[in-house]
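Researcher: Quick one. two chains, 655 residues in total.
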Amino acid sequence: MVDRLLGRQDPKDGNKAAAATDPKSAMWRRVQLARNLGRPRTLDLLREMADEVIELHGDRGFGDDPAMAVGFARIEGRRIAFVGQQKGADTEENIRRNFGMPHPEGYRKAMRIFELAERFALPIVTFVDVPGAHPGPESEERGIADAIARSIGLMSRLRTPIIAIITGEGGSGGALAIAVGDVVIALENAVYSVISPEGCAAILWRTAEEAPTAALAMKMSAQDQLELGVVDRVVPEPGEGAHADPRETARRLRSVIIGELDRLGALTTDELVEARYRRYRMLGPYTEVSAPDVAPPPSRGLADRLRDLLDPTRWSMGMPLPGSSRRDEPPAHEEV
Amino acid sequence: MPIKLPSFRPRRDVYPPDLWTKCPSCGDMLFNKQLEKADRICPTCDHHFRLSAAARLELLLDPGTFRERDAGLQSVDPLGFVDQKAYPDRVATAQSQTGLRDAAVRGVGAIEGQAVSICVMDFGFMGGSMGAVVGEKVTRAGEDALAERIPLIVVSASGGARMQEGTLALMQLAKTCAILERVRAARVPYISVMSDPTTGGVFASYAVLGDINLAEPNALIGFAGARVSAGTISQELPPGFQRSEFLFEHGFVDRIVNRRALRAEIAGLLRFMRPREVPVDTRSAFSPIGSFLSQVVGAASGGMVGASGSSATNGERDG
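Model:
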């Protein structure tokens, strides 16, 4: 786990992944790239692309979260408010920045900047790169779920343009909390998922070893997310990946951001907010079947009960039967 | 007078699981039929067992008032997800086991005569996980509450977002939070009831956002599962961590309510929170200073971002 957070990877693994071309290894290689320690972070990208960056601090309630960077910036004369998770470039910085996993105060700081931006008519650009919101007890005590839900709700109705960019790991609710936008952009090797592949594998395959399989099954690559409609646009990375040439990555993102700012700026606020609401209202396919009833749950008639009396296997605690104690099993899904 | 015969069989320490349930809290063996009659509350220690959607609706609503809506919504398999079993097979199994089409049931009903739009979840259906169908039902329940100006009630029982639907399940957080913002702006009350368990993406979206948050006693409520916490950061977890009482102590739950008192409690709260009859839109129309200011700001910002609406939004929010 520590290795994963630090973005370290087994060199053997890397070679193997590079050599193999099957979809599973290719997907896992992307996950590794998204977690690469050398990938440019929010402040690195802004320093490259902006003429002016002013970072702001504090949530006005508890403290300042170093895992979340917020502030104002000017990109080619366009004033924006920015919000993004900030991972560290080395172990020391990562420890200080909690590996880019914000606590509730990080999301509350983000909300502060969102409201400022709305009040002063600044468009918002968010940079998403997070393994997940911080899962510790202090995070729960201070209401991480509350902070995430309120941030999502706030973004859904903000009356100013929002551009969300997944630059690295889009880890679940901790990512979505700052990724509700009018347009959602992803870098080529970014990933976006509902749960970490390790977590998914641990629950559904009963072993974290199957993480690459889970990553493939969840279709977490930027390209897959584009096809699902969760992401609107994928920006190609230079060469080996963003870590190989951060400057070029920032340059490419800058032109995309400028284009989107101009496009969204041309819309009226009402159109913008309604379109954003519609975008999320439509996501998630389902069918509607006309026959309202599915087969009723198996009801236990007299014959069943007589059969039970004769069947010794039913007299053990071994296998709970459907309909009996199934409601009291431990939760199957633990994380989002 | 019956004669007590000496028993030659050993004392029975195994119980058929479909007849008896062991209380995880006090260890008593409870006869299932009696447990059902007692609203699935342990008579010895008051432990609240999980409740099916049907039992929950029966418990909360006035008899015969429930009208189900959108009963036909059914999950699809957008990712072609296969783990040890294909996702459609898992759904089919859950359907035949529970008789439900997905993990939530929604409709309209009445609580002590007050009409409500209600959505209840069922943990028995794939751990109550939220996919597109659950997200859609919660959203539509909110839309009905908004359209009919009746209070919204959501009873959660869920392990979180449904992994098999990937980020599309994650997007349900955005969908549900967005409708709740509209419900709030329209001054329609929303009461969230958290039952055991309410975790992950369900907790971090509509469950936590109630105007009033109620919780059943000792329910597991939290964002990251204990295993995730322990795995990611090797830290000792405090006792009672992520239980209703923990959340109450830290200010995220208004009241912890025994299941039998829930109905009366909700009815009592709703008497204080009647949906406002006046539509909100009139407020911004009657705010000449606000619209004047927004014109000025709009002109100053060169029309780059229409600021005309921000005063209206602020007006909606401070109410």
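Chain A touches chain B through 100 residues (CB under 8 Å).
Researcher: Thanks, that's what I needed.
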